[in-house]
Amino acid sequence: MSALTFILKDAVKRIIDCKKLTPDTLQGKSLSDILAINLEKNLTVADVFDVQGDDATTLIFNNTTAQLQYIGYRMKTGNITINGDAGDFIGAQMQGGVLICKGNAGERAGDTMRRGILLIEGDAGDYCASNMRAGTLGVLGKTGAHIGYGMKRGTLLLSQTPAEQATWLDCGLHTLPFLNLLYQSFQTLDSKFTQLSNRRVRRWMGDVSGMGKAEMLVLQA
After folding, report:
1. With contact defined as beta carbons under 8 Å apart, do 68 and 49 qualify?
2. What is the rounded CA–CA span in Å between residue 175 and residue 56?
3. pLDDT of residue 193
4. pLDDT tens digits, one per residue of 17-59
5. Overall average pLDDT of the 188-198 stretch
6. How many angstroms separate the CA atoms of 113 and 110, rounded?
7. If DSSP codes are grouped into helix, strand and coil, which group holds residue 143?
8. pLDDT tens-place string over residues 157-187
9. Which of 2, 4, 18, 89 has its CA 20 to 30 A from that of 202?
């Protein structure tokens, strides 16, 4: 079996809602069933993507742009890889599995995320991890304004220093051995995150305007 692969057609120039394309919703469906799924009014999967493969536990999106929103919405299991940029709300309300974006992500990546791993190798837009409840969200590139807004629990792993937030508390520099376990969990993934090894971080706690039990770990050189 090979990964179920969605290749965005060049002619598609509008915003596309991808909520219906997750491992959970596609397992057990035939290729003809998948091609017939309505993504928008009068717009099916066949109108938007060329589709190949048959393993719905592993999804790949190719030739992607910021037009594609809500990739990985409410996903519970499986793996999704986005080979390119993605739009807003990737990994929103995610409940499990692994979602990797190899390009840049739009606004509110991981919004209200509850479990799972979301890894963004490029930049992330404003409100990354907003209202996040649990899970791990990593960003190797730059992050926008209001990162971690309303975040309640979970871990943000950042390779670049984010914009300072008034409702996050600086807890200083730490060497955290548990990061070795986290890095080991990345080793089976096709991602730049497998190259991480630094356990020295600056740790922030927030968002203290609410529960304040989330952490932001900024990797130190």
Report:
1. no
2. 39
3. 98
4. 999 999 999 999 999 999 999 998 889 999 999 999 999 999 9
5. 97
6. 5
7. strand
8. 999 999 999 999 999 999 999 999 999 999 9
9. 89
d(CA 134, CA 95): 9
The tokens describing 29, both together, are 């469906």
HEC per residue, 26-49: HCCCCHHHHHCCEEECCEEHHHHE
Q: Which amino acid is at 25?
A: T
DSSP, res 24: H
Nearest 5°: the CA angle 110, 81, 127 is 20
Question: CA 213, CA 164: separation in Å to the nearest integer?
Answer: 18
Show Cβ contacts of residue 88 under 8 Å, excluding neighbours closer than 6 positions.
Answer: 69, 70, 106, 107, 108, 109, 125
Q: Are 99 and 119 in contact (CB under 8 A)?
A: yes
Tell me if the bond preceding 88 is cis, omega within 30° of 0. no
**Spatial distance between the Cα atoms of 137 and 199, rounded to a whole number of angstroms:** 16
Question: For all residues of the chain together, what is the average pLDDT?
Answer: 96
Structure token digits, residue 155? 């871990």
Name the E strands within the chain.
3-8, 16-17, 38-40, 43-44, 49-52, 55-64, 68-69, 79-84, 95-101, 115-120, 136-139, 155-158, 168-175, 200-206, 214-219
Q: What is the DSSP letter of 163?
A: P
Provide the residue type at 32 as one letter: S
